[in-house]
TrEMBL record, chain A:
<keyword id="KW-0808">Transferase</keyword>
<feature type="binding site">
    <location>
        <position position="98"/>
    </location>
    <ligand>
        <name>S-adenosyl-L-methionine</name>
    </ligand>
</feature>
<feature type="binding site">
    <location>
        <position position="141"/>
    </location>
    <ligand>
        <name>S-adenosyl-L-methionine</name>
    </ligand>
</feature>
<dbReference type="InterPro" id="IPR029063">
    <property type="entry name" value="SAM-dependent_MTases_sf"/>
</dbReference>
<comment type="pathway">
    <text>Cofactor biosynthesis; ubiquinone biosynthesis.</text>
</comment>
<dbReference type="InterPro" id="IPR010233">
    <property type="entry name" value="UbiG_MeTrfase"/>
</dbReference>
<comment type="similarity">
    <text>Belongs to the methyltransferase superfamily. UbiG/COQ3 family.</text>
</comment>
<keyword id="KW-0489">Methyltransferase</keyword>
<dbReference type="GO" id="GO:0032259">
    <property type="term" value="P:methylation"/>
</dbReference>
UniProtKB/TrEMBL annotation, chain B:
<keyword id="KW-0830">Ubiquinone</keyword>
<protein>
    <submittedName>
        <fullName>UbiH/UbiF/VisC/COQ6 family ubiquinone biosynthesis hydroxylase</fullName>
    </submittedName>
</protein>
<keyword id="KW-0503">Monooxygenase</keyword>
<feature type="domain" description="FAD-binding">
    <location>
        <begin position="3"/>
        <end position="339"/>
    </location>
</feature>
<keyword id="KW-0560">Oxidoreductase</keyword>
<dbReference type="InterPro" id="IPR051205">
    <property type="entry name" value="UbiH/COQ6_monooxygenase"/>
</dbReference>
<dbReference type="Pfam" id="PF01494">
    <property type="entry name" value="FAD_binding_3"/>
</dbReference>
<comment type="pathway">
    <text>Cofactor biosynthesis; ubiquinone biosynthesis.</text>
</comment>
<keyword id="KW-0274">FAD</keyword>
């Protein structure tokens, strides 16, 4: 671990309104509180971190505590930076993209306190692709279920992957089980997410998703189920892709 | 940052943790008020420690085993008797034989030998050892903790671990209280030589004032761990050498031939304590700083090493996922894993001590019958041996077979 101040460190920029800084610090605290509003995401985070780390380490033939030194990663829909920060510690040079300015400012504030250099930008996959950005790893985690034009979006994302690179796409399957668990269970029974967070009609079957990825010129390497076990109250990788799953595609 | 982890205290627990973390690729700095040469001096610490076979496995993996091997005496069997000073040992004794579980029950080693082996292993690793210097305070700032050292240095890290012993200064600095009580007993420690070989047998005589343990050392030597009421211990410490030896002989018995006392004698007050919290953001307690138990079954160091192995697992797992190792979320996993175990072990030892440190007739009968029963039921004997060997419960990776 190293000390590194973010280039756009909010607290040192004289044009920044202190009230704004306070607001985003509070939001960062909320995003990063494992017992707070985003608790379900914190619970889910280790299993996806582990999957990304292991899959990428194997793909690039890397080992050690900072296996990804010298490689670049783009996190699309980065939110508060829950994936971007760990990926930076693992050695990646990380770009975090989010369409929400609020999220980007929040993530930036937290990265500054963490002493991590992360390039956060308010932008979309489409505009990054247009600008010719390409990374070794592209993370597309829990985004596609919110996208209107899926094939168009995935086409843009595919261009963001460098040749020889990887893209991870995590989303929710369109099954009765996912309607019962991920939509009704999570939003109305457990209240892990506010009602209306997800539109079940936008959930996508693995076959459709992998079809779009192939059309976009990528090779599908793996489809991995992720399940919640209510007995141990924890998430783990599984063969069950009925609800949550992650697709790994290469270029 | 200066290191991933700073460890305040370079005793068994601090040095073992440094080795365990360095093995996983983390950068570690240890600060201790005592230099290696002073700590290895015979006068510094006369105690011996019982190492369970889970602890021995861990030392093997940390590269401490080879240096320790020639100085550690394997325990082949343990003989437990209920005795008084004027009566012969009760016929209801308890015999644990390592053969029954396929190997020694553990080993006894002098603390200074363990310390020497740990220092040698640490010197072979890229571990920074700062001595003499104590960590006197700390402050948590954003993504790091800043530790202040007695020599004026300040160091920053993602996590500070307090392994600074039962009177932990860092625990106090953090305002973490303890629960506990004094046993009103002292442990007197002395080394004896004897005519006949002990054959790797450890004896535990339950005398009314407290347990009297004879622990086999290398050669024809044994270490006595002799529990007495505090006032009596003070008088025993004042005795002339010949009188002291006579008191030893009364309790020791003649099964190993003539006995002679070697070197100094030490007396340590016995207490039970458990820290109310094990972790704070960027701060964790380990070993005696977190808990202290009655030494009746020689479990104190083993419990501390189990903290080390568990904490190392938790930190390495988090670091491998790129998580911030100092967050409360990560450290709570360690607390949940270890605090209850320490408490349960502490209470068990407490109960043993209360059950045996008295001369109440019905209790004597009950415990003698209890020992007689355990002695006759092999699965129960094997269970006790595995429990004492540290082979039950969720084992950290360093201790797994």
């Amino acid at each position: 671990m190293t000390d590194a101040a973010h280039p756009a460190a909010a607290s040192t920029d004289p044009s920044v309104d202190p009230a704004e800084v306070a607001k985003f610090s509070a939001m960062a605290a909320e995003w990063w509180d494992p017992a707070g509003k985003f608790a379900p995401l914190h619970k889910f985070n280790p299993v996806r971190l582990q999957f990304i780390r292991e899959t990428a380490a194997k793909h690039f033939g890397r080992t050690g505590l900072r296996p990804f030194d010298g490689l670049t990663l783009l996190d699309i829909g980065c939110g508060g930076g829950l994936l971007a920060e760990p990926m930076t510690r693992l050695g990646f040079a990380v770009t975090g993209a989010d369409a929400s300015e609020k999220n980007v400012k929040t993530a930036r504030t937290h990265a500054t306190t963490s002493g991590l250099a992360i390039d956060y930008r308010v932008t979309t996959a489409e505009s990054l692709a247009e600008a010719g950005v390409a990374c070794d790893v592209v993370l597309n985690m829990e985004v596609v279920e919110h996208v209107a034009d899926l094939p168009g979006y995935l086409n843009a994302c595919a261009r963001l992957v460098k040749p020889g690179g990887l893209m991870f796409v995590a989303t929710l399957n369109k099954t009765l089980k996912s309607l019962a668990l991920a939509k009704i269970g999570v939003e109305y029974v457990l209240r892990w997410l506010p009602p209306g967070t997800h539109d079940w009609t936008r959930f996508v079957e693995p076959e459709r998703l992998t079809g779009f990825l192939k059309d976009a010129g990528l090779t599908v390497k793996q489809t991995q189920g992720v399940s919640f076990n209510p007995l141990s109250w924890s998430w783990s990788l599984s063969n069950d892709t009925d609800v949550n799953y992650i697709v790994v595609a290469g270029r | 940052m200066d290191a991933d982890v700073i460890i305040g205290g370079g005793g068994f627990v601090g040095l073992s943790l440094a080795l365990a973390l360095a093995r996983k690729g983390l950068s570690v700095t240890v600060a201790d008020p005592v230099t290696p040469s002073a700590a290895a001096d015979a006068a510094f610490d006369g105690r011996v420690s019982a190492l369970s076979y889970a602890s021995l496995r861990m030392f093997e993996r940390l590269g401490v085993g080879a240096d320790l091997a020639s100085e550690a005496q394997p325990i082949e069997q343990i003989l437990v008797t209920d005795a008084t000073l004027d009566r012969p040992p009760s016929p209801f004794s308890l015999h644990f034989d390592g053969e029954e579980i396929g190997g020694p029950l553990g080993a006894i080693a002098e603390n200074r030998a363990i310390r020497r082996a740990l220092y040698a292993a640490v010197a072979r690793q890229p571990i920074r050892l700062i001595a003499p210097a104590a960590v006197t305070g700390c402050s948590v700032e954003g993504a790091g903790v800043r530790a202040r050292l007695s020599d004026g240095t300040e160091l920053s890290a993602a996590l500070l671990v307090a392994a600074d012993g039962r009177e932990s200064r860092l625990r106090e600095e953090m305002g973490i209280g303890t629960v506990g009580w004094s046993y009103g007993q002292n442990g007197i420690v002395a080394t004896v030589t004897h005519e006949k070989p002990h054959l790797g047998t450890a004896y535990e005589h339950f005398l009314p004032s407290g347990p009297f343990a004879i622990l086999p050392l290398t050669g024809n030597r044994s270490s006595l761990v002799w529990t007495e009421k505090t006032a009596d211990a003070a008088s025993l410490m004042r005795l002339e050498p010949a009188e002291f030896l006579a008191e030893i002989a009364r309790r020791f018995g003649d099964h190993l031939g003539a006995v002679a006392h070697e070197g100094p004698r030490w007396s340590y007050p016995l207490r039970f304590h458990l820290a109310r919290e094990y972790v704070r953001p960027r701060f964790a307690l380990a070993g005696d700083a977190a808990h202290g138990i009655h030494p009746i079954a020689g479990q104190g160091l083993n419990l501390g090493l189990r903290d080390v192995a568990a904490l190392a697992d938790v930190i390495a797992d988090a670091a491998e996922l790129g998580r911030d190792i100092g967050t409360l979320d990560v450290l709570k996993t360690y607390e949940r894993w270890r605090r209850f175990d320490s408490f349960a072990m502490g209470l068990t030892m407490d109960a043993f001590n209360r059950l045996f440190s008295n001369d109440i007739a019905p209790l004597r009968l009950a415990r003698d019958l209890g020992m007689g029963m355990v002695d006759r039921i092999a699965p129960l004997r094997r269970y006790f041996m595995r429990e004492a060997g540290g082979d039950v419960g969720k084992l950290p990776s360093l201790m797994q077979a």
